[in-house]
Amino acid sequence: MPLAGADPVRARAALDAERARLLAELGEPIEAPGQVTYGSQAAAASHVFEQQRDLALRDRSRIELGLVEAALRRLDDGTYGSCTSCGKPIAAERLEAIPWAALCIDCARKGSR
Ligand SMILES: [Zn+2]
Fold first, then answer.
1. Which of 16, 32, 58, 113 is the most exposed place for a label (fewest CB within 10 A)?
2. Whole-structure pTM over 0.85, yes or no?
3. How far is the CA of 55 from the centre of ligand 1 (A)?
4. What spacing in Å lies between the alpha carbon of 81 and ligand 1's midpoint?
């Protein structure tokens, strides 16, 4: 039983939904710099700030999309639910909370230290 605790059908549904959400988010156009005329320095500054925030969010979405797609590949090759670092099964509760989790809780803790 390679998929210890993980329900591949539910996991795939969750990953597909998340993937669609992220793709929609990344598909939204971001206003190109230089297209807007600003009434004031402050307006320009706040606009730049918003743009940078949008880009940061987008970076995060792109990274998450990569994780989701990697998890879908692991579902296909039957390694989903195993830690990609130590190979131990990832806890079902963790996969339920983060369906694209690639690391068990122990490795995730080690990695973020
Ligand atoms: Zn691990």
1. 113
2. no
3. 31
4. 11
113 residues of the chain, pLDDT tens digit each: 444 556 889 999 999 999 999 999 998 877 666 656 778 888 888 989 999 999 999 999 999 999 999 999 999 999 999 999 999 999 999 999 999 999 999 999 998 66
Ligand 1 center to 18 CA (angstroms): 23
Which of 28, 7, 5, 20 shows the shortest CA–CA distance to 68?
A: 20
CA of 13 to the centre of ligand 1 (A): 24
The alpha carbon of 65 and the centre of ligand 1 are apart by a number of angstroms equal to 21
